[in-house]
Amino acid sequence: MLNLAAEGVTHNPILPDWREIVVGTVAFALLCFVLMKFVFPRMEQTFQARVDAIEGGIKRAEAAQAEANKLLEQYRAQLAEARTDAAKIRDDARADAESIRQDVLAKAREEADRIIAAGKEQLAAERATIVRELRAEVGTIAVDLASRIVGESLADEARRKGTVERFLAELEGVGAGSGSTNGAVRTS
Amino acid sequence: MIGQSIVLAEGDIPFPPSVEDFFLPSIVPWGEHSVWFTKFTALIWLAVGIAIVFFLLSYRKPQLVPTKRQWIAESIYGFVRNNIAVDMIGAQGVRFAPYFTTLFCFIFLNNLWQIVPFVQISPMSHIAFPAFLAIISYVLFIYVGIRHHGFAKFFKHSLMPPAPWFMQPLLIPIELFSTFVARPISLALRLFANLFAGHIILLVFTFGGFVLLNSDAIFLKPISVLSWAVSIALTFLEALVIVLQAYIFTVLSASYVQGALADGH
């Protein structure tokens, strides 16, 4: 079978030799098998992985951006809330301070009033005491004076008391009426 | 005069190049005329081996940030995937990208032998290799079309362009020929003929240089330098052809698959 192309036989260049077709087909099939099974699918995988890597990177960046925006919004909201809270606290504090001041003032006024009232009362009481004491003393002094001036001993206690009382009553009545006590005393 | 020099040079230099220059003897000692082990089959295996080793080594440990070699391997796949499969077929072209990339690498590496020093001939200049690739593309687009549309709808879709009914007797044979006959043949012939002609042209100018150098006429000898310069320039042209033909084969295969998947005309 190998002696087809014997010496002197002219070859026709456009008639394919079947053995060469077999060799070519087998060789090409081998090449196809190896490249299409082991090389090009892996290239597709690599291309895909590359696309994924790039798109994944973009996606990750976008996610990070969104996260950052969300956090920023959150912080802004928190900040605004904190500002409102602070304002509220300040207002409350101001109101509290005002009410405390009012309370303190009211208490102070009350205390003052109380102290004034107590002072007045005490004053009135003391005045009454003094008036009472004075009345007794003035009587004694007046009697002493009168007895010394007149030189007469007033033995009768009841009469003397009556005289003094009368005198004092007259004195008070004149004091309340005209204000000139000396004249009244003199006239009586 | 040129005819004379050719005759004179006939002894040691095979000039002019002929079809027999493409049919090299077996490279193994047994079976002198075996087609199983020739320079061509060896080059095919070598190209396949290089491609496998390159891709496996550069994609042994893929990383998100690629190394230089991983980047090169990815660029090859990415080029066919995005600029051929997805551009031609659309989003579902991604699932054909591995096959088209393999096809592109296989054709490109085998074409490349055309200009590799000391090899200087591409297996693709034997029609057998472009032919089986064309058959695979042919089967692929028919299979994809039938899977997508169903058998009857696919053939109706492929054979009956939207035209008035009385035009169909004319159009159906044309469509039948262009889609189901011309496509695989043109795919195979285009690749084969480019590489075949490229090799012949390089042979003409390289051996032609020697023929001129050996000619009796003194004033013909310096022209051999020009001939070699042209052959170097043509090698660069071949480099372009190599890439272009691999690209065209892949793009056309993708275009056929796209046509089979398309819903309207």
Strand content of chain B: under 5%
Q: What characteristic shape of chain B results from the CA principal axes? A: globular
Helix and strand sequence of chain A: HHH
- SS class of chain A: mainly alpha
Number of helices of chain B: 8
Briefly summarize what is shown.
The complex is a heterodimer of chains A (188) and B (265). With 188 residues, chain A is an all-alpha fold. Chain A has 3 helices and no strands.
Could you give the topology of this structure?
The complex is a heterodimer of chains A (188) and B (265).
Chain A (H helix, E strand, L loop, with lengths): L17 H133 L6 H21 L3 H7 L1
Chain B lengths: L1 H8 L29 H20 L9 H22 L7 H16 L15 H22 L1 H9 L8 H47 L8 H39 L4
Helix pairs in contact in B: 2-4, 3-4, 3-8, 4-8, 5-6, 5-7, 5-8, 7-8
Question: Can you tell me about this structure?
Answer:
The complex is a heterodimer of chains A (188) and B (265). Chain A has 188 residues and is an all-alpha fold. Chain A has one domain (18-153). Chain A is built from 3 helices and no strands. Chain A is rod-shaped and about 200 Å long. By secondary structure, chain B is mainly alpha-helical. Chain B has one domain (2-261). Chain B is built from 8 helices and no strands. Chain B has helices at residues 2-9, 39-58, 68-89, 97-112, 128-149, 151-159, 168-214, 223-261.
